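Holo prediction — 2-acetamido-2-deoxy-beta-D-glucopyranose.
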Amino acid sequence: MGLFCISCSIISTLKVLLFIGVATFIGGLIVLPILIIYVRIHFAKNRAGRLRKETVVGFFHPYCNAGGGGERVLWAAIKSIQTKYPSVHIAVYTGDLDAEAEQIIKKAEKGFNIQLKPGIEFIYLHKRKWVEAAPYPYFTLLGQSLGSVWLGLEALNSLQPDIYIDTMGYAFTYPLFKYIGGCQVGCYTHYPTISTDMLRHVYRRVVSHNNRRIIARNPFLSAAKIAYYKLFAAIYGLVGRCAETVMVNSTWTEEHINAIWNCPFKTHRVYPPCDVEHLTKLPLLTMEDKNGIIKIVSVGQFRPEKDHPLQLRALYELRSIVSEELWERIRLVFIGSCRNADDEARVKDMQDLAKHLALDENVEFKLNVPYPELVRELQEGTIGIHAMWNEHFGIGIVECMAAGLIMVAHASGGPKADIIETQRGSQTGFLAENEKEYAKVMAYIMSMHAKDRDQIRTAARASVNRFSGENFEKGFLRAVEPFFRSKQE
Ligand SMILES: *[C@@H]1O[C@H](CO)[C@@H](O)[C@H](O)[C@H]1NC(C)=O
């Protein structure tokens, strides 16, 4: 009797579940498409009734007043469109409610030395908090992505552009603008929302910023998380492919985007504009100008991944392979900003390590130096050293090369893929992997004939033009040109 009752209640529970399942299915299959068609028609009508007849380009950049590298790309992109297509109307979607249009423009013009034409419209978005991590302690990626759709809806509702260009990587907004808004969609991606590296951390069950300890330690939670990530990556690929032209900022990003979006034919590598022009104009100093002092310059924040200890150990190795007379002329100069107590502690550790290795006479620390002094150090240097493993790009390396240093960088990541050419004849620098290699390469550079050194310096300077504003403009315009061609027909 009791057993019968239990099976009865199980059956009725199953019935309820089945009912919910069917209802969701019908809802998803019938109601959702009707809703989508309805909104589409609504937006198509909107577009037909629009008063503005010129082409409208909308840039989606909710943090446009931040003043970082991503913003330089935004303003340089806007400037290039203004120059090439003067009759186009440009709008920027921003969530910076506290900044007025003039303030934003002024900050961009001053901060990036970019002159913009007047007439840029700002569309203020109020729902930006939904793309921040704070509201989603769990399933952060999914939460932020759905939040971006919500923010995108607000944007589309405020202004419906002809061409939509996302410069912050909110891929989940692309289907919205493409299928509902009827826009042409392009994007510039600095960083994939989910990368194969993140998946690997969960696979190997290591604790990292995207993998909590409790998950790394539990095989079931890890398996569930892998499933979640895989599903997310699949959807990310689906929405990303909605863009008709995809720009990526480096080889690293290109590889990851290709792995997930898998649309290499419409993916273009367009390096972001670096402000190196003034550095390439500095006169190259000779060894006599430098009083015979050979400075090895290391520019970088005092963060653990920059691997300053490796640089010190390399100097230690160097000492054992050069003459005493040469050693007296060698200085390793660390230049970097010290932002907090952690940084200070690391600097202290480094100074202790230098003492321990008996290098302190030949090592200098320059903390928080003003920009003109940094430039002078670069100019007086002979060798630039960089030791971070797998850096995605390395703008610091580009700046050192522009200033005339001969770089020895870590043989991995962006330095290897994008920046340094080691082929004889077109050599622009050196790569190394461990302290012995670094030491050997530096000793070799010091033993080179000045003429051969200058050849590398000149080639390095010429090569950093690939990262100039002018080259960015060319690459960007080439990638978005089809949008404007179809508008003019
Ligand atoms: C691309 O963007 C990422 C994320 O902002 C950054 O780490 C990387 O340095 C950028 N690459 C270039 C070439 O600027």
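READOUT: The mean pLDDT is 93.
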